[in-house]
Amino acid sequence: MKFGKEFISQMVPEWQGAYMDYAYLKTLLKEIHLFKFKTKPPQSTTNAQGLTRRLTLYRAFSGLTQRITSPGISSNTNDIESQPILVNSVKKSDGEFGLETMFLMTGDEGGEYELVYFRRLDDEFNKVIKFYRGKVDEVMKEAAVLNKQMDALIAFRIKVDDPHYEWPDSAREMTRLASDVAASTASLAASTPGMKASRRVTVMDMIEEDRSLEAQSDEPSADQEKGKQGNKFVQGLKAMNSKDYDDQKEVFNENRGTGQELKPMSNMRTKRPAPLEILNRVTINNTLETPRSSIRGILNVPNQTELKFSKENLSKVEDQLKSAFVEFDHKLRLLKSYSFLNIMAFSKIMKKYDKITSRYASKSYMKMVESSYLGSSEEVTKVMDRVEATFIKHFSNSNRKKGLSILRPKAKRERHRVTFSLGFFAGCTITLIFALVLLIHARHIMNKEGQRKYMVTMFPLYSLFAFIVLHMLMYAANVYFWRRYRVNYPFIFGFKEGSALGYREVLLVAFGFAVLALASILANLDMEMDPKTGDYKRFTELLPLGVVLIAFFVIICPFNIIYRSSRFFILTCVFHCICAPLYKVALADFFLADQLTSQVQALRSLEFYICYYGSGDYAHRDSSCSSSEIYNIFHYIVAIIPYWSRLLQCLRRLVEEKDGMQGLNGLKYFATIVAVTTRTAYSRSHSDEWYKIAWVASGVAAASGTYWDLVLDWGLLQRNSKNRWLRDKLLIPRHSVYFGAMVLNVLLRLAWLQTVLDFRVSFLHKETLITIVASLEIIRRGIWNFFRLENEHLNNVGKYRAFKSVPLPFHYDEDEDKQG
């Protein structure tokens, strides 16, 4: 793979605009190369006889160790006259330091092209270094915040382990230990040759001696050296708790009289616990949002933030800090990769410049790049090492393998068994579909008497499976194209790192479910009842319910099988949608609620399942649901549940974010609720009054929904955009794709009005037509998904948002700290 493609593939998608514009600099080099080719075409090596000879084969052998120099350049690269450029570090008007390259060969033919190249090269470097410096400043501030969080965590752990623990009084401890230190030092001095046994070393002597070390000669005496060692030992003791005092005293007594150097344990400072006084300046952040906390917030009831030293709270704090460290380390690794990739890009582009122009400019330019903040700064590497060491020690009990597996989870590898299973289930699905079609044709099932009863009762049951499989197929296509066009969907949805499903995994689940559903249909494709009992086989009649129950138990299965993290993520989002507006609205929550608005017919199928099997008439394939008043009421309620959830989510965001657009979005969903309700009423009564009301309501809902999709959700139809009627930034190079998607969205919105239009097809049953229209709405939603997430991704790119914010467990009172 060429470096240009590799460079793009390794970029952080949200930082793409902050990287060096390698492609544009290559176009400038192509212009230089084209100019030189036109003015100085390459000389031919063809001899008079017309034979081309490789002359280098006949030259004298120059040896393996001879220094290689660029053609046309003297080997003395330090000569200023032989250098084509002069690179200087300058301070710009905004106070930032950057590079400024002076091209010294402007008088050469084509020098103006090279001058333009170096000006753009400097602009790119200054852009890169400014962005990098800003991000490094951010991570250093975050590191300082995490330092305080860790101090509070360690102190919190001490209080949980021993609620009555008090920070040792350093003055009392030093008084108690001073005599031991002095006596031990005197004993050591007596047993060491060259030292005066009569000299008594006191704590004050050692401290004063240490303070006057700078005023003494460069070669201190043996007494002074021992005093210095003793003072270091005392200072080390100050940093220890009572347990470490006892441990160090044992080591000191063992070494007494051996002549070894007096010093505390090497890891003494790393074992030093944070002072418990820090707990007086911190409170607990109530980061776990629940319906109860939301209600308390509405009623302005203050949250309980006092510290409660329990193992449960300690576990919550540790989990939050784990997540914070994982995200922080991820940011550091991407920042380090950003520095490395850009330095590599500058090196590659300068080598191309040397090759095209036959100059030797890359060495001097790269020397300045490597000595700049981008190439010489080690803050990120040092912080990464400290983060790794801290995480392994404090969150994995010093188990390095376990700690790194949590801190830096490995990306999911494509497994051959997934591809094999996908192919197997896809083949089974196609085979079962062909078998179903041939069986219907061979038995002439569509012409039998029980066909009408089957379409009224069994077809709505099995259509649920078609809706689910179709939606999963559309989502798999979305994932494929998101990856192809580098849309960072795991970050946007908030998936845990390494847990996002690829399109193969989604297709595997879809085809597996399709095989189960098709097998159930084939087993229950019976149009004739038992002439003796007048019933159908109870076992086969229960097959659809069995498939639904299997799918339900798989979703809630607590075992780590069938992509548990993804299943629980979906369940969490569903619960948030049901409990709206009691939870803070995340993108994944309202995105799922939007998917449910396109699955209204699937929800009505679930309602039919409850009524059909709950009534007990499934053995006769008789359904009295349509005549039930309760069923008809829930027929309205079920249809508006997804839109009602989105309306409440919009109201929650309106209150929290103070964004008027969320209020307008809520009005759009309210208009859709009115449209769905009036259309359902018209389909039940077929009266002229409901027909007119349904027409007006559906027209308003369709128009507002279409406008919102194209302009606000997709960000298209911008009149002043450089891509006319689209938007400035596009991920798909072909503009026709966007115009085709807009036209298709409008057409599929019109299909949504089928109930009001009362469109009939003679050769299609009513239930079949309803299923087709519902499937078209699912397809429209699948198309909407891609462009909605593309627009969200480009918004994150414009704001360089590449990381999710992780709430921290402790709130640190800065004012109180300053006063203290």
Q: What are the SSEs and their pairings?
A:
Blueprint: H1 3-9, H2 22-39, E1 85-91, E2 97-103, H3 111-161, H4 170-191, H5 203-211, H6 222-238, H7 242-254, E3 282-284, H8 291-298, H9 311-357, H10 362-371, H11 373-376, H12 379-395, H13 400-407, H14 416-443, H15 451-484, H16 489-493, H17 503-523, H18 538-541, H19 543-556, H20 564-578, H21 587-597, H22 600-615, H23 629-657, H24 660-685, H25 688-713, H26 735-751, H27 754-757, H28 766-798, E4 810-812, H29 814-819
Antiparallel strand pairs: 1-2, 3-4
Helix pairs in contact: 2-3, 2-9, 3-9, 4-6, 5-6, 9-10, 9-12, 12-13, 14-17, 15-17, 15-22, 15-28, 17-19, 20-21, 21-23, 22-23, 23-24, 24-25, 25-26, 26-28
The main sheet comes to: 2 strands, antiparallel
Mean pLDDT, to the nearest integer, reads: 79
How many H/I helices?
29
Task: Please state the overall shape, judged from the principal axes of the Cα atoms.
Answer: globular
Number of strands: 4
Order of strands in the sheet with the most strands? 1-2
Strand proportion = under 5%
* Secondary-structure-derived class: mainly alpha
In helices, the fraction of residues equals 55-70%
Radius of gyration: 37 Å
- The end-to-end distance, rounded to whole angstroms, is 59 Å
Low-confidence stretches: 45-53, 65-78, 169-177, 191-271
Describe this structure in words.
- The protein has 820 residues and is mostly helical.
- Among the domains are: 170-274, no CATH class; 416-798, no CATH class.
- 63% of the residues lie in helices and 2% in strands.
- It is built from 29 helices and 4 strands.
- The strands form 2 sheets. Strands 1-2 form a two-stranded antiparallel ribbon. A two-stranded antiparallel ribbon has the order 3-4.
- Helix 15 runs antiparallel to helix 22.
- The model is unreliable at 45-53, 65-78, 169-177 and 191-271 (pLDDT under 50).
